[in-house]
Design brief:
With about 260 residues, the protein is α/β, with parallel strands linked by helices. Helices cover about 35% and strands about 30% of the residues. The protein is built from seven helices and 15 strands. The strands form four sheets. A five-stranded parallel β-sheet has the order 2-1-3-4-5, sandwiched between helices. A five-stranded antiparallel β-sheet has the order 10-9-8-12-11, with helices on one face. A three-stranded antiparallel β-sheet has the order 13-14-15, with helices on one face. The longest helix is centred in the middle third of the chain and has 26 residues.
């Protein structure tokens, strides 16, 4: 998922930008989420320290007269903290554009508020599109992805985020259960099993990412996942699955020490 952060000290503008971004994400069904909309650069950095995103898109003002930190300083800190961060400045200070490059911030865009609300809104939408495109391209080049198609559009998410894939109640459809989403799409479990051998078939209705199993209910022969979801395990496969799960859980405990 691509996390989105907005930082703007004008309350009306912050509310408006947040609404524009949220609506556009929903319209396009992007795997994005607004994590924070704040008037304070310091609050932004605190949030990042407490819950650091793997991939992020920022819309930042530059001048914050009531704060002890500028948007530019916040952007520099973001660059130091995050591996993947797309930064868009939204400001009246067009003269600051050169400075952002001199400070090696490398923003994706620089939106000047003087363009007027209509053009600024359009620029926000364009940068959501472009930021999401860069995010998906980065994933395709660096991560093992799970892909699915809905209505002719192909979507993807990191395999590491997938909990399991299950046969859906709707005929000829399956559902993928992941860290941040649950999606139903046309398909057959057999085809997915062939395409993604890392997913383990524990039952006729479930393909499981064993790396994400958080617990085992031996009495009811069920696997438990971090969000509380559970899957059945076929009786004839339970011993083998139990051995594999215990091995994965033990290895994970060792990594956390």
């Amino acid at each position: 998922m691509l996390s989105v952060y907005l930082c703007e000290d004008n309350p009306a503008q912050l509310e408006h930008y947040t609404e524009i971004v949220q609506r556009y994400i929903m319209i396009n069904d992007y795997d994005m989420k607004i994590q924070l909309a704040t008037p304070s650069p310091r609050a932004l950095l605190t949030q990042l320290q407490q819950d650091q995103p793997k991939y992020a898109l920022f819309f930042l003002d530059i001048e914050f007269p009531a704060e002890d930190m500028s948007g530019l300083e916040a952007a520099i800190a973001v660059r130091q903290q995050l591996g993947f961060a797309e930064i868009v400045f939204v400001t009246t200070h067009s003269e600051m554009a050169l400075l952002t490059f001199e400070r090696k911030v490398e923003p994706m865009d620089f939106i000047v508020k003087d363009l007027g609300r209509v053009q600024v809104d359009q620029k926000l939408r364009e940068n959501i599109d472009y930021g999401y495109q860069r995010y998906t391209t980065y994933l395709a080049n660096t991560e093992n992805l799970f892909r699915y198609t809905i209505g002719g559009r192909t979507f993807s998410l990191p395999m590491g985020d997938v909990y399991f894939v299950a046969t859906a109640e709707t005929p000829h459809k399956v559902s993928v259960h992941a860290v941040s989403q649950l999606v139903e799409f046309p398909g057959y479990l057999k085809d997915i099993a062939d395409a993604y051998p890392d997913l383990y078939r524990v039952d006729k209705s479930f393909l499981v990412n064993l790396d994400n199993v958080s617990g085992l209910d031996a009495e009811n022969r069920r696997l438990i996942f971090p969000n509380g979801d559970q899957t059945d395990v076929a009786t004839r496969k339970f011993h083998a699955v139990k051995t594999l799960v215990q091995k994965h859980l033990k290895a994970r405990e060792g990594d956390n020490r």
